[in-house]
Amino acid sequence: MKGDNTILFKDIIYSTETVLEETIEKCINNNLTFWLLEKKLDIDTYEDLIIATNNDKSGFYSKLI
């Protein structure tokens, strides 16, 4: 981010399926430019990382451990 865009982080319920949608809506409503990158798995625990690594055909997650 190139400026103070703390508005993006207010009033969002995290760990829900709507986080991305709500964030995009806030960007649009505040005339902010954004780009969407390729989706990756959400890794919160070491076990998540092991699962991601075992299913990783690209080698992306294998580089993390």
Structure description:
With 65 residues, the protein is an all-alpha fold. The chain folds into 2 domains: 1-34, no CATH class; 38-65, no CATH class. The protein has helices spanning 19-29, 46-54. It is elongated.
Rg: 15 Å
Taking pLDDT < 50 over at least 5 consecutive residues as the criterion, the unreliable ranges are none
Average per-residue pLDDT, rounded, comes to 86
Q: How helical, in percent, are the residues? A: 25-40%
Order of helices and strands: HH
Main sheet record: none
Q: Structural class of the helices, strands and pairings?
A: mainly alpha
**Total count of strands:** 0
User: Total domains, how many?
Assistant: 2
Q: What is the global morphology?
A: elongated
Distance between the termini: 28 Å
| Alpha plus pi helix count | 2
How much of the sequence lies in strands comes to under 5%
Features:
about 60 residues, mainly alpha, 2 helices, 2 domains
Record the SSE blueprint.
Blueprint lengths: L18 H11 L16 H9 L11
In brief, what are we looking at here?
The chain has helices spanning 19-29, 46-54.
